[in-house]
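Everyone, carefully examine this protein record:
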Amino acid sequence: MNSLFLTLKFSNIFLVESSNIVTVLIITVCIFLVLLILGVRKSYKLKAENERLSKKSESKADDYEDFTEGHLY
């Protein structure tokens, strides 16, 4: 009888109510949702900065003159 009681006691330790599982899952989903939103926001910012730098480098490419033509190395 004593071993049966210990077996039942240990099996009760691992039982978790479904409300606890749902709460943990909701918290986990919220954390990953925040990370996803931050990642998408960062992606749009980097894309906008890349386009801005591309336009800036195109305008500088037109102004470049090769100054090494007259020099002998």
User: Anything to note?
Assistant: Helices lie at 2-13, 18-63.
